[in-house]
Amino acid sequence: MRLAKVTAVTTGVSAGRRGRRGAPPPFDAAFVARWLRGSAAEIAAHRDFLTQLDAAIGDADHGVNMDRGFAAVVSVVAAADGLSPGELLTQAGATLVLRVGGAAGPLYGSALREAGRSLGEASAFGLPELTSALEDALAGIVKLGAAEEGDKTIVDAWTPALRALRDARSAGAVAALHAARVAADEGAALTTPMEARKGRASYLGARSVGHQDPGAASTSLLFGALERAAAEVPPDR
Amino acid sequence: MGDRRDTIQSVDRAARILKALAAGSPRLGVSELGERLGLAKTTVHGLLRTLERQDLVEQDPETGKYRLGPELLQLGNAFLDHHELRGRSLVWADTLAERVGEAVRVGVLYGRRVLVVHHVFRPDDSVQILEVGASVPWHASALGKVHAAYLSADRRRTLVSGPLQRLTGRTIVEPHALALALEEVAAAGFATEAHEAVIGEGEVAAAVFDHRGHPVGAIGVVGPVERVLPAGPSAELVVALTDTAKRLSWEMGARRGRPGTVLHPGPRAGVGG
After folding, report:
1. Bridge partners of B209?
2. ipTM for the complex?
3. Which among A6, B146, B148, B185 is least buried, having the fewest CB atoms inside 10 angstroms?
4. Contacts of B131 in chain A (CB under 8 A)
5. 3-class secondary-structure state, position A195
6. Alpha carbon distances (Å) from A171 to A6, A73, A176, A225, B47
């Protein structure tokens, strides 16, 4: 318990009440809504950072585009009363495709739509279902982008995050999502020395070396929001 | 590489050194270069000293490693300055970008890649990166597809059956599908590309012809897919583009009338004009 308390302090949330084995499926539409709102807040807070990363190797619109898209997702979440978690993700994905330009719109959009499709109409789900949904999301990204690990893309944050999530699945949802977030952060950081092999940055060849991939950076923000959404217990429940 | 009988080995090696320095690692030592190119250290050293004297490579005083030299920029600029299609396209590309409100690129098929020889930014305040000098696999580019569509059947077959790299999940990498796509392009008079080179990006391009009716390159409108190709290209965009390509072809010496028809009479009337 001492350890759990330390974790709770460092992440600034009251962890531990949800997601234990034997408990009912801990995730629901409110969890997905917290994740999406949290992602929007993270992206808004890091908008300029993402844009600066993109200015180095892209066309400096990643932060602005993602912020605009996730702001639209927040309105979808606010208006989405009674939707299942899967339907909510599907709608959020469609919104991103429509509202985010560049590569990020189609990639994140299809990721969330695939995740939504994977969850289907269930009103609650557990860590195994969440893991499969995130795996389907990554498969959607790979199908569209045909990128592999090491190409200096969004995939370099998603793939290690999902590996960590699978490896830590027996530790409980909060711990597993924490491990996923840490791995996403590390994966994003590791894109810095890489030379881009996909996307517009690949036109620039060696010029892309020394800059973190903006898509990998925004992915680690999304996994950060996911961890917090799982750890948070809303006051009204 | 083909026939090497009438080439000079040391020039070939020097060129390979420059290309090795241009690809990937910006600085390489004598032994690293020797290993990569399968050459003895003394040979590489002699070549590097010769290239250095011409300012084509320079040595980092701290590490002793070699990198590309400043003279290469002069050579690259000279290539662009002397490029006829680029020179003639400058004004046309500006006008087209202004007319359609999107970025314009002019490209030429060299080997299996399209070299971007001119790029006009989208006329707004956004940050954009100059893509002159970028080279895109031909089959993932509207510029490349439209240039290829008017080549001889032999050359098209070679291109289509060659290695087709997958840049995104939307890149056409199946030879038969690509051959069909080229036929459609030749019939329509323009090529499109959506998400095939870069996710989120699309391009519409038309070929430019010379006095023999041979394609010499292509001009294209490039931008976010949702703006350039929301549901196929808009008729206005296609008209503006094909009109520009036609005038540019006249400047390149093409005869009036529909260029390209001599080589490949389309089975149908052109789309959008």
Report:
1. B215
2. 0.74
3. A6
4. 203
5. coil
6. 16, 31, 6, 19, 60
Whole-number Å distance between alpha carbons of A108 and B86: 37
Domain locations in chain B? Answer: 9-70, 83-251
Out of 3.40.50.10680, 1.10.10.10, 3.30.450.40, 3.40.50.2000, select the CATH number for domain B83-251: 3.30.450.40
Write out chain B residues lying below 8 Å of A145, CB-based. Answer: 168-169, 199
Q: If you average pLDDT over every residue of chain B, what do you get? A: 89
pLDDT tens for each residue of B140-161: 999 999 999 999 999 999 999 9
Q: How many angstroms away from the CA of A92 is the closest CA of chain B?
A: 18
- Architecture in CATH of B9-70: Orthogonal Bundle (1.10)
| A59/chain B closest Cα distance in angstroms | 5
Q: How far is CA A106 from the centre of its chain?
A: 15
Fold designation for A26-231: 1.25.40
Cβ contacts (< 8 Å) between B126 and chain A: which residues?
59-61
Count Cβ atoms within 10 A of the Cβ of residue B124 and give its class: 0-12 exposed, 13-18 middle, 19 or more buried.
exposed
